[in-house]
Give the backbone structure.
Amino acid sequence: MNPKILLIEDEVKLAKFVELELGYESYDVTVAHDGLSGLMAARDTEPDLVLLDWMMPGLSGVEVCRRLRTTGFKEPIILMTAKDDVADRVAGLDAGADDYVVKPFSIEELLARVRAHLRRNQPQEVDALQFQDLTLSRKTREVKRGDRAIELTAKEFDLLDYLMTNPRQVLTRDRILEEVWGYDFMGDSNIIEVYVRYLRLKLEAEGEKRLIQTVRGVGYVLKD
């Protein structure tokens, strides 16, 4: 089930743009254009995360945030604001916001913050992952292909973990860089290709079927 995001933004063009970008990321998006409608939408849709404009007619974003928290809403709230003074940031956080982005913002940064907060809000992850005859244990950091044990470096393990956590999903290079190497990674741009090659050599050492497939011009996918 795709995460549900409530976007409360009175600028119609900006709201449409952000809605489309969130949709491309496979989120289920509900849009409200004022604070009161946003409060009702939060009650009706029970979103997993709220993106909330600060400056709106009627109820401000800070007031909406405060009211949501008083009703027991515990999911992440990210404020979108042109206010960047320290006092304003403190006011937003004190009202119950988890994070904020300053307008005009980069959509890539906004999406990264959404993913980060949704990730933190997920229930405890399972220890063991399996895809066909490939198994991975997060607790012991053991990887096997059938009965054959495979030794991986720390970063090879992290990359395989991410692929196995998202099986049959095409993962872009940018997404992999962000999730495995970190959002601010500034190293070799070919690092993913290098590590995918290392993984394939180890996973296919005894002629096993290839599981990590290249999607030309896009990224990689773990599939049958």
About this structure: Residues 4-121 form a domain with the Rossmann fold fold (CATH 3.40.50.2300).
